[in-house]
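Researcher: Last one for today. Full complex below.
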Amino acid sequence: MNQGTKIAIGLGLPALILVIPTDIFPLEGITVVEQRVVSIFLLAALFWILEPIPIYATSLLIIFLELVMVSNKGLNVLIKDENMGTLLSYKDIMYTFASPIIILFLGGFFLAMAATKFRLDQNLARVLLRPFGTNPRWVMLGLMLITAVFSMFMSNTATTAMMLSILTPVLASFRDGDPGKLAFTLAIPVAANVGGIGTPIGTPPNAVALKYLTGDYMVSFGEWMGFAVPFVVILLLIGWFVLMSFYKIATPAIQLEVKGSFLKNRKAYIVYVTFILTILLWLTDFIHGMNAYIVAMIPVAVFSSFGIITRQDLKNISWDVLWLVSGGIALGYALDSSGLASRLINAIPFASLSPIIVVLAVSLVAALMANFMSNTATANLLLPLIAVLGTSISSLSDIGGGMMVILCTTIACSMGMALPISTPPNALAFGTGLLTTKDMARPGILIAVIGLLLTYGLMIIMNAIGFF
Amino acid sequence: MDRLYIVCVDDQREVLNALADDLEILNAHVEVEICESASEAKTLIEEIDANGDLLAVVISDQVMPGTSGVDFLTQLKEDGRFPKTLKILLTGLATHEDTIQAINEAGLDQYIEKPWSQEDLVIKIKKLLTLYVLRSGLDYQSFIQVLDQTTLYEGLRART
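Model: Here's the assembly. Have a good evening.
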């Protein structure tokens, strides 16, 4: 399909929705505003799936369309009718650019950037890899654990890039045709993808989930890590076994060499202290009362003030990732504030659905979609709907309620890792030219399926201990 | 999508053909163009620029009738429209002064001596292409097959 066709479909179908008169719309009592939100939602889905334009551009388009078509300061001819429903506040739509969730991510970006700039990541990798010796199996486990830990605080892509750059020179010392090369090359993206689940800032789908984890569903940074880190560790160990059984390592010993030593200058010490302090404060909100969003401003303020992150460095911030999330938040906001969400709850007989089938279905859909499109875009599309579903199916409350479905779907979004196009880490591993799509997909699918089963297990345990 | 161009300039047809052959493996992702003189290259570059396509790498011989390679590359640098374009001097006959001028005035990125080996040439070009893709903020994933992985990792590490 060429770009023109994709755009035609992406604009055409939503336009069709717009011209259906509200009284024959298959959702009783729908207002004009709500109908437009349906149309924008469909446009978002088509654009994120077909990708005729970059995914962050779709997010910006969503925000723009909401402002023009359904906000209280929109284009006057579009919003002059008095009985068109509840118009959204334009300020609230624009505010998604600076939502606390975005600031939390920005804080994470500052930490990651400073860590890379002052070689903290590389030096930590060097020190942490040492105990794993030279036995390839243990070295691979070490690489996976370190990759996972880093990707909890750095982007999965940057972590993969760093770890692959450590790994690449070593791959050359492997025996010719050793399948172990495949195991090692795949270990990095698997660990990066899985590791992202570990913290709220580990990967953007988690951030999107935070929008719906407020009020009764509130999850603190520490609570998130409390359930997610053990999950990550177990899935990593399984991934390690899976990769080793698929690709037997023939090389008897390998030597990973990471050069460098810890920087010992004033700025470097400020980075180390701020890094540790921020993480400690994230974990101890119950003592000091500052939530994760406010703590995220610490690295932003400190690193800017001390010239650790300079004007030039600001250019390296992935604004596209932040804005991609903003678009998702804006989509959820529109669904909620227009009244469409509650109308869907009342109109569709969700209550008659079996809660277990609902959870299985949505998590499978999420994992499947995430394999073919961006994990974040998947979360952007599904989570607003899941949040509606979660509050409307009362029978869900026995197995954890809305909060459980949201967490389950969020984790499922990170299970999209079977194909080179699934995630940027996979693309980077594929770019080494050492593996085929099939080499990646076989263990990838198995790990994702086990990951989903493990997610259900986690949900059952969390429900049993009364987390939800 | 905007196309990436590699422009090769040499007055000897055989050299150009050899270059085109060696760089054929990049063809799926970048356009490799050959020009027999600096003036022909300038016309082509104008065309590329006018179409909104991207001039990623220029490979030039030094000793050519008319404008020399170093002068051509210097003009390209002074032009100001192609600050991200990477420049290679491919020559067997550059004098000491030529080389100094190429580095200081033309902002040369690579110096390749004739005769070259295909392997070495492709590695160098891939490195420069990667730098171009990163500097221009292009979507690296769509070019990943023709990028130098190590250079790509370096570039991506600095991003959040």
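Residues 100-314 of chain A form one domain. Chain A has 24 helices and no strands.
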